[in-house]
């Protein structure tokens, strides 16, 4: 089968989210991943290979054949070795890692159930890219497929936004306020300084995930966005931050966000909330602790003296909320890989706790299993570059149902009612845009 690698010069896209949602909804190839980064949009589909890692088994599918075996060591080292051995011939890998991926590096494997999913990556045969000019590129498809995909992209033009279905995010069956109070007591006793606790909002209907992605992207300002269907899990989200980026020049970056206020309530209220955010001692302490942790973590894999902080305590707007934000960078040390850096930094400090080991222990005790929530969507290059976008502000769906999830950072000064309100503010980035199937 011949393939194309060409720019479709007749096609220019003014609404990439609509084009990506249409490609996903048409479901030409089954499993797929949509990933938005730096003005570029990618639709990756029709896996020629997959890698699935769970708490007891590694499964590799290539050219229609699946092999399964046990594994030992760290999940990051296993994934680095597997991807190095696969005949990817210049292709990227896309997929996700779950929060529970961190259990090995942080000594929490005793909390995991057998078969807990850790990683699901796919290596696509076909990619459709929309670049920063709006031009469409199709790679890996034969001419007939390319024509079909181009028609699908073209059909997304001038289509109306879908209509959402109301979701009540104030219903809480998880005892969230009580869990926050229990964590505050543990913090006051000196067990740790901070933990992020979350709550799940079950949806009483099936969700049109591609339509929700399109509508939600029209109302969000994410650092990255994603839409995926992999192995029975569907999700769409508007990531507020990068857990990790390792570029081809071996620069390692992370962008911790900590400290939150509502946004989108009007210029006067937004400005007042911003002023409150940048002067609130609780939020400042929470953010400074997160930056300090990220600085130390990057330092473990970076060349000595290259770790630095920029944009300290900038305010970044992310949909229905605004956050304190900073960027921490370093240069990856010789002999270290992007997966080593991910192992050092994951999970994001802004979705786990400080110090991270007892914070993660608290998450496993107080939160239900998280799965993709506060994990990451990955794009892995054959050159060794890697991006891991934090999975927050998302909707999730399996055959068992659909749900939303949001959390808040708990420190000694936390009040359970305020942390509950913060989860509502964050859920406001997704809940108003959920489209019923």
TrEMBL record:
Lineage top rank: taxon: Bacteria
Domain Chorismate-utilising enzyme C-terminal: 174-426
GO molecular function, one term: isochorismate pyruvate lyase activity
InterPro entries referenced in this protein's UniProt entry, alphabetically: ADC_synthase, Anth_synth_I-like, Chorismate_C, Salicylate_synthase
E.C. number(s) listed in UniProt: 4.2.99.21
Alphabetic keyword roster: Lyase, Magnesium, Metal-binding
Cofactor requirement: Mg(2+)
Protein name (database record): Salicylate synthase
């Amino acid at each position: 089968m011949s393939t194309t690698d060409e720019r479709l010069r007749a096609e220019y896209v003014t609404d990439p989210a609509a084009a990506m949602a249409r490609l996903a909804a048409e479901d030409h190839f089954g499993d797929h991943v949509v990933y938005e980064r730096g003005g570029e949009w990618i639709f990756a589909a029709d896996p020629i290979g997959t890698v699935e890692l769970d708490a007891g088994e590694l499964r590799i599918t290539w050219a229609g054949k699946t092999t399964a075996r046990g594994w030992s060591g760290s999940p990051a080292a296993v994934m680095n070795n597997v991807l190095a051995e696969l005949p990817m011939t210049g292709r990227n890998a896309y997929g996700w890692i779950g929060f529970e991926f961190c259990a090995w590096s942080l000594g929490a494997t005793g909390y995991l159930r057998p078969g807990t999913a850790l990683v699901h990556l796919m290596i696509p045969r076909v990619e459709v890219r929309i670049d920063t000019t709006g031009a469409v590129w199709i790679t890996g498809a034969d001419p007939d497929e390319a024509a079909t995909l181009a028609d699908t992209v073209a059909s997304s033009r001038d289509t109306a936004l879908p209509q959402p279905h109301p979701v009540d995010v104030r219903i809480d069956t998880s005892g969230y306020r009580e869990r926050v109070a229990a964590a505050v007591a543990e913090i006051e006793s000196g067990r740790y300084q901070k933990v992020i606790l979350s709550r799940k909002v079950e949806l009483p209907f099936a969700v049109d995930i591609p339509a929700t992605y399109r509508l939600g992207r029209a109302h969000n300002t994410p650092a990255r966005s994603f839409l995926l269907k992999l192995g029975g899990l569907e999700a769409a989200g508007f990531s507020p931050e990068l857990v990790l980026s390792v570029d081809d020049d071996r620069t390692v970056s992370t962008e911790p966000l900590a400290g939150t206020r509502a946004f989108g309530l009007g210029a006067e209220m937004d400005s007042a909330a911003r002023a409150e955010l940048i002067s609130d001692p609780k939020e400042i302490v929470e953010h400074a602790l997160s930056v300090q942790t990220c600085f130390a973590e990057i330092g473990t894999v970076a060349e000595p003296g290259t770790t630095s902080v920029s944009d300290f305590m900038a305010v970044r707007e992310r949909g229905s909320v605004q956050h304190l934000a900073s960027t921490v960078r370093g240069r990856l040390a010789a002999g270290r890989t992007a997966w080593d850096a991910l192992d050092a930094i994951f999970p994001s400090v802004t979705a786990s706790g400080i110090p991270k080991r007892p914070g993660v222990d608290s998450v496993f005790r107080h939160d239900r299993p998280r799965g993709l929530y506060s994990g990451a969507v990955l794009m892995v290059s054959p050159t060794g570059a890697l991006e891991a976008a934090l999975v927050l502000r998302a909707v999730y769906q399996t055959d068992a149902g659909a749900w939303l999830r949001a959390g808040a950072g708990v420190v000694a000064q936390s009040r359970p009612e305020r942390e509950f309100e913060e989860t509502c503010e964050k859920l406001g980035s997704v809940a108003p845009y959920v489209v019923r199937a």
